[in-house]
Amino acid sequence: MELRDFCGNGRTVAALGELFRQGRLPHALCLEGEDGTGKKTLARLCAGAALCTAPQGERPCGRCLACDKVERGIHPDVLVLTGGKGSRSFHVDSIRRLRQEAYLAPNEGRMKVFLLLDAHTMTVQAQNALLKVIEDPPQASLFVLTVRSRRQLLPTILSRVVTFSLEAPSPEDCARRLEQLCPGKDPAACRAAAQEAWGNVGEALLLLEGGEKRSPNQEARRLLEKLARGDEYGALAMLVPYEKDRPGLDRLLERLVTVAQQSAIVQDPARRVVTPAQAVVLEELCTQAARMNGQNVSVPLLAAVFCGQAVVRL
Q: Are both 30 and 72 inside the same structural domain?
């Protein structure tokens, strides 16, 4: 796969392509965006660009042995680290392993690449350990972090990485990508899935393949739309299933913040549900609701306070 094959995000792709062509890749990158927007795919493309052995032309070329190994996940100079599904499941032990590997010479490429996927799940201890490496990085190394939102990283980490934001492509671009990925599928089904998923390729694939009927991001977007248009009753109805699922409510609130932040900066005004100022207000309200949830305030009361304040302030 080449960089030009990446779906949507033309400005980000163009900026990265220029860095690759000029050989001016920074030592640490951060790719932010909601799940399904291609952060992990783009992270691997960055690894491919760093290790591509093509003598000239676009990088990654997608044809050399190094690119093939990166794409298949078998390149010895690419180390992939990730946490679990929990909000603080990326532990310091993984970063200690990274630090040991970072100061060893590359096995066969010109550098070592470390992909830290879902870095927003890193504990504070893990982030502080990572900071010690990226503030004085080893020569011939590249660190690529993927996060839902840059705000989930410590300011000290953010000051030492170059951050690129990803957003879901247009439903039209998403549908075309689905047709490429699933050549046997009906084009009409691809278009319907792309529309339902708001252009999010990862979510559209799940819908197309008969997976989850509604992803966590879709739930958060539905709630965001209801709050933004003042549908307090509809928002309250969405929170009823969480009366006996406090962990699920925490996850929904976390996703709601991320989805609002991404919606606020989307380039297409027609797809912008809230403004940046409204996204900040919603983050404040979600933080307050999560605190109430942790204090075992009854979920119906919590939901009433949250939805009531959101409808008034958004």
A: yes
